[in-house]
Amino acid sequence: MFxxxxxxAMLFGCSKTFLDQxxxxxxxxxxxxxxxxDMSTALTGLYASLRATDFYGRTFAIKGDLMADKCFxxxxxxxxxxxxxxxxxxxxxxYASAIWFNGYNAIKNANFIINAGLDPxxxxxxxxxxSEAYAIRGLVYFDLVRNFGLPYTTAPSSAGIPIVTKFDVxxxxxxxxxxxxxxxxxxxxxxxxxxxxxxxxxTMNFTLTAKSRSxxxxxxxxxxxxxxxxxxxxxxxxxxxxxxxxxxxxxxxGFSLVTSSNVISYWKGAAPLTGKVETMFEVTSxxxxxxxxxxxxVFLIGKPGGGAYGDMLATKSFYDSYSATDTRKGLISPExxxxxxxxxxxxxKYPIDNVNLDDVKVVRFSEAYLILAEAYYNLGDITxxxxxxxxxxxxxxxxAVYASNGAQVLTDILDERAKEFAFEGYRFWDLTRMGxxxxxxxxxxxxxxxxxxxxxxxxxxxxxxxxxxxxxxVNPNVTQNAGY
Amino acid sequence: MRKFVATLLCAILVVTQVxxxxxxxxxxxxxxxxKPLSNASIIVKGTNVASKTNEEGYYxxxxxxxxxxxxxxxxxxxxxEVNIGSKSEINVILANTxxxxxxxxxxxxxxxxxxxxxxxxxxxxxxxxxxxxFSSVDKALQGKVAGLQSVASSGQPGxxxxxxxxxxxxITASNAPLWVVDGVPINAGDASRLQTxxxxxxxxxxxxxxSISVLKDAxxxxxxxxxxxxxxxxxxxxxxxxxxxxFRFDTELGNSDxxxxxxxxxxxxxxxxxxxxxxxxxxAGYSTAQINxxxxxxxxxxxxNFNWFDNIMRVGQQxxxxxxxxxxxxxxxxxxxxxxxxxxxxxxxSQLKRTNVNVRITNKxxxxxxxxxxxxxxxxxxxxxxAGGAFGNPLLSTxxxxxxxSAYNPDGTYNYVLNGGLHNTIALAExxxxxxxxxxxxxxxxxxxxxxxxxxxxxVYGIDYNGLEEDQYNNPIHGDGRASNGRAFAYxxxxxxxxxxxxxxxxxxxxxxxxxxxxxxxxxxxxxSSGYFSSLQAQQFPPSLxxxxxxxxxxxxxxxxxxxxxxxxxxxxxxxxxxxxRFVLSGSFRRDGSSRFSAKNRYGNFWALGATWNIxxxxxxxxxxxxxxxxxxxxxxxxxxxxxxxxDAPALYGFGFNYNQLPGSGPTNVGDENLTWExxxxxxxxxxxxxxxxxxxxxxxxxxxxSENLLLSVPLSxxxxxxxxxxNIGSMENKGIELSINLVPIQTKDLRWDLDFNFxxxxxxxxxxxxxxxxxxxxxxxxxxxxxNTFFLREWAGxxxxxxxxxxxxxxxxxxxSNIYPGANARILAGxxxxxxxxxxxxxxxxxGFNLSAQLYYNFGNQVYDTWRGYYLGSGFGATFNKVKRQxxxxxxxxxxxxxxxxVYNGNKNFSGASTYNLNDGSFVRVRDxxxxxxxxxxxxxxxKIGSANIYVxxxxxxxxxxxxxxxxxxxxxxxxxxxxxxxxxxxxTVGLSLAF
Lengths: 484, 997
Known about the structure:
The structure holds two protein chains of two kinds.
Chain A: H1 2-12, E1 26-28, H2 36-50, H3 53-57, H4 59-66, E2 71-73, H5 82-86, H6 94-114, H7 124-148, H8 178-195, E3 203-205, E4 212-214, H9 222-236, H10 239-252, H11 263-268, E5 279-283, H12 296-300, E6 312-314, H13 316-321, E7 332-336, E8 343-347, E9 360-364, H14 365-378, H15 382-393, H16 407-420, H17 427-433, E10 438-444, E11 450-456, H18 469-474
Antiparallel strand pairs in A: 2-6, 3-4, 5-9, 6-8, 7-8, 10-11
Chain B: H1 2-16, E1 23-30, E2 41-44, E3 50-52, E4 58-63, E5 69-73, E6 80-83, E7 92-93, E8 104-106, E9 111-113, E10 121-125, H2 126-129, H3 137-140, E11 148-152, E12 161-165, E13 178-181, E14 184-186, E15 209-215, H4 218-221, E16 232-237, E17 243-258, H5 270-283, H6 288-297, H7 308-312, E18 316-328, E19 332-344, E20 351-364, E21 369-383, H8 394-400, H9 425-431, E22 433-452, E23 455-474, E24 487-509, E25 516-539, E26 555-579, E27 583-594, E28 603-614, E29 627-641, E30 652-655, E31 665-669, E32 678-691, E33 696-708, E34 711-715, E35 724-728, E36 731-747, E37 751-768, E38 775-777, E39 780-782, E40 790-794, E41 796-799, E42 806-809, E43 817-818, E44 827-832, E45 837-847, E46 850-860, E47 863-866, H10 869-872, E48 919-921, E49 924-935, H11 938-943, E50 948-956, E51 960-962, E52 978-979, E53 986-996
Parallel strand pairs in B: 1-7, 13-16, 47-52
Antiparallel strand pairs in B: 1-4, 2-3, 2-5, 5-6, 8-9, 10-15, 11-12, 13-14, 15-16, 17-18, 17-53, 18-19, 19-20, 20-21, 21-22, 22-23, 23-24, 24-25, 25-26, 26-27, 27-28, 28-29, 29-32, 30-31, 32-33, 33-36, 34-35, 36-37, 37-45, 38-39, 39-40, 40-44, 41-42, 42-43, 45-46, 46-49, 47-48, 49-50, 49-51, 50-53
């Protein structure tokens, strides 16, 4: 009998590797980034993480407009972003927690690249790849701190967000101050600029594998990072640095503005660019790599018969604020819509024929001009403010000329920013960093009059996202924002 | 060994004996004293003289001079030896080893007898699951077994069914029981990726099942140690019996309709909608001109009053045909069957068709060797609509589309312009497609070799194959495909799973008189399951409705394939010690390795101890006339759960994060080298007794099962970049009582009344969590001391009588209320999704050829969440979508007492927000099954040259009583107990015919 048992055990015992099953689409974490090619692949993954709907893919752009004074949700909506329109976030808001998660997910991806232990001084490719990782980390920290913390201009020492520069699965960090986070952002962007070796349109060649990497507008090249840095100085109210940075971008980047006759076709184009025209950095999608229906286009375009939601509409007064000669007026499409009182002013900025492929512009060359104009104004140089503004606006409305004085110049600049960056998520930040009180439209009547609205003043709880409740439950060191 | 020697000695003696005269013996072999056993073999032991029984079971055999003993045998029956002596007639009753479940219980890797069983095992017989209008056997188990909760969430034919045996044992890891079909552990559950629901078991025809054993406690489960934590369901398919080939034909035809409709939740008609919208516009402060233009734009006075509900609901057709043949001789038996099953759901675009075949062949190659083969293969073709909030969900359009918009234009073509950009799902039912074609094959070859009379070796080599093809097409003209000019998906999923099990069984008497005996089993098992997943999608289609495959799309957008595998390797042993069938002590041990854990932590040791005391066999009970059976059982053990992802343990950098047409990677899994088995420790004590000549049979079980080292998805600070990591932490407990009573109140020659009642109570409690911290998960809270799936919601405080405003309690203290939707801190524990108790009551009456039976299923103590309530009962929220009748009860003037707030166009405060208003009591009692049948008397049947004939009428889910009059939809809404506008659960009326010949 024992013989029989022994025989069974010997005959049927499987090989020792039977229980070693390896995953088919992963590698061991510690072995992931060992060469410049590995780093390039990891960096591509970092860019892909920006594409999420509740991140650069859609929600950042929607928040900046839906929570400001030029847009509202159609009464015939798909149920998305109601809390943005109503200003009634709760601490369990799904959008806020998704942004928090997506933000730190991207930061984690960047940290793995930055801390991989490859030497940028030894290899220009590694230097460039690390530059991009630093630039993205800086950008993400900046966007997180302005969403979850108070404006630097009003409360720099208030709670910002936790700074995490090294992966530690067990850490439960407290919130750093807004000023500390700004310092981190500026350090990251400055480091990115210093490490950058290639510009948009150039190609990197990897020696080991003979692969190449062409830098189109999908990637964060040096001057895109520098423009973001100018944006950070602008939000900080550091006008001297804002001016110097914006001037450097305009003078040395080699980028040009899209001209007025090309505005419509510029917005229709979906392919990443290499010609250094207007787009400095955009988060791109393609047929195989995209967020499905979670795009700006599907949310914004009203397509009778279905397929798109047409949820966020522009107010009629905003549409009317564009002069007839302003080519940007064509980016809003007034239509009749069943279930919506009045005219539905649909946003037509994002390509309609390839809705799943739309690219989200994150940094455009125009911004350098408008930051520069604002910096001149704040530094008391009204003349150059107007000169810069006019250099820009001629590319949108050839008949427009700005020649105001005093505070009106600032209004001109902010109005021009509203028109230029409409539906790209800028307006809310202009209003809040200025500390303005504004009227948020929520619905219109049959004659396009805004009938439901609320007044939003600094101090309104909903100006800040709540720190996600799930984070508070797990991480007792993090404090909640006031009012939640 | 002793026996062997004795036989040998016998043979020697026989040879040396003086030759006696030849004589002939006659007799009859039966199963039960009446039912003939044909083709049974009779041999004179020690000779090669043999004979067989005829059709009627009679035989005659001439005994040679040296003949002493006759050996009777037939496949699937126990051998019997009879001393010839001076007898001239020998009648024998052979005991069935297969189907007599009252005696033999199919367990893990073998069978046990009721007397020696130490565990808690419930069995379900073929008759209880045959010919039911259910697409899979798991649905048929509802109410059949104490302690087994089977709950549907969709009436879609082929939908998944959740089964919990003695509650939920895990928070993150699987709570599904292990299914074992003919000795092969199979993949069960929902493997679909594109469909809203699917069920691997839907390819298995319940009519092919002979018996189901549900293993509920440590003693019965632990031989499956590694995967027994959630119970084991052992399915045995039908085997043939030797004799004349018998055919059986079953058919059933019927109709199904929605089982539960609450008139308060029927959608409004055109007038009602326009009127309440006017009321809402006035309440919202609109001017008369604005009101008129608004209601006009919503279709006031356009003459259309389209009833979406009636046009989307339908009476579904139901039919099935099953044909089987069985037979064989004393060496070989076979069972063959084929079936066709077709069922339509209660709303458009919902159906399932199944075709399946089944074969089992058993051959007794020699006296010592039996070999067998079985294969059960089936294909289902399922069509299921979208569910939940999808615009293409027909159930959504039932409640959201306005009656002022028709599905059709006046010229009969489809109308594509509807309120809110919603889709015309009636058009889409024709223009779009969503299919799941699932093919499964489960089978094994097996051999059993009797090394010695008391030692046998058994080997089972089994496969379990599931292939799923899923197709979806969205046309370019209307609906989800419009934005991308048409799109089509083709997903292929394949699971292949093989298992090799080898066991050695030893029966041994310890004392020579057999008073103390032991049976021991040792075994080895290896299993590998590999999944293969290929996904593709294309868009930009030609403007045609007939080109529905991705091949016609210009732009491929998804093209991906990967695989995923796991392996298990196990050694096990079990033994029991039996003293005169009075005391039985059983023990088992199993060592399992799983590929899901790292090399240093992959093995787990599992064990169980069980004991039973058959009190009725004690000497002091010999004069007892009350108890026919009295048995006390107890067991305790440890088993394991590895129901997590295949690659959760290692820290990983994953790929597929592509961008700008380049491959990208990113950290995907935190990993934990120390990850190991989740432990489940069930303690069970049970009592079985039968009194009054077995007319009262009672089984009571009480259990506590503790889950420890939970494989818990522990939330991390998201600042780490990860949301959660799987860790062995936390514990949970289930406590409960189960009661099964079988009564035979009347038993006369012609009339018999059977009454079966079962009751199950289970109390789940989470006993520890990391840092005692709550974990929030949707509308649920996971909190120490509370049940899993406890709702956590803001508390509704009623309508303000003077203003009609909605009110909520401001804090979780149930004190002050306010018309301002409170913050998240005001949420309260609002009841649980899992029932406090459930069970069934079955009455069966038979009178001569007639039988009438009715099963009531009851479920009490859970809450059901109405997920989409805010839209159709939100007092104006989503104003351009239709509402339900209950909305007409809205507050209108001060003093009105109602629970529906004032209707305000575009919403009254945040009434639509989640609160306890969305909860309803889920208690219900349902007539699960009612059947009236007639069996043709044998005499008539013989005249018609058929073996037997039975006709019946059956109603399933015919009546549903619910405790809460405001329960909007069917009370069965899955284990999470939340409605999601799924296809409604049907009530079905069928007529059936069973013929045997």
